[in-house]
């Protein structure tokens, strides 16, 4: 089996990242293809299959040495059936039978999971999770996503929706509405969008007139990064906003720890670029809400794999199933 390899796919709305890896996670070849979402996304899977065929031929690999194909996709995945539905950024409103298409093309084992879960698995395996058996990843981007690895396996729950950390209700009295229709979801308060929601709300009652509050009041389009950078540099208004952000995120993470007792919580996504300043603040707020018996049982760390988390996690999907 010395030539054994795994094919990994991380499908996104604008492009798909693909890789051929050794089972150890060492990347042999990595490339990407644009995602063509026209015609209800009907070209996506045929394009991926063609891209893999081409690359395998170019590298003179033998498909008989391939242990399987793993893939992460947006949308609601049925892991057993290897189907996905509701991936609206791919124009996949209807159920897509992805497993059947790949098996018909290659005759190889094929494994599918949600992209947030797959990224969590990648970080747990070879990233900040350091191979620990119980790891939760919280992805702070435009929204808040997550994935839970418990006893070495991804949790899916009864209907595949385990790990929807972004829609934990963190403040039932909040006036901030989430895209899901509820108010006070973690995603509406502690994402890149959430911090701007908090900042605008804060403008109405803050005691601090600072450069950032004035720019915001003047209607300037600031970003989450602007708020974090200003807070770290001492802008009092931004510091209040970041404190509230970290308070909400710490409350959400405390629920995760109380419930699942992970040894590592990985913070990923664009907002985690705020780095140690964010991590240390969130860790402090988390402790306030924690069941005391769980203090000092976990670490909150920053993700380390960046954009490679998805393909490494997709590779590990194949390893775990072997
Ligand atoms: Zn929500």
TrEMBL record:
EC number: 2.7.1.2
One Pfam short name: ROK
Top EC class for this record: transferase
GO CC terms in record: cytoplasm
Keyword Transferase part of the UniProt annotation: yes
Keyword Nucleotide-binding (UniProt): yes
GO BP terms in the entry: glycolytic process
GO MF term list: ATP binding; glucokinase activity
Keywords: ATP-binding, Kinase, Nucleotide-binding, Transferase
SUPFAM superfamilies according to UniProt: Actin-like ATPase domain
Family designation: Belongs to the ROK (NagC/XylR) family.
PANTHER family per record: BIFUNCTIONAL UDP-N-ACETYLGLUCOSAMINE 2-EPIMERASE_N-ACETYLMANNOSAMINE KINASE (PTHR18964:SF149), ROK (REPRESSOR, ORF, KINASE) FAMILY (PTHR18964)
Protein name (database record): Glucokinase
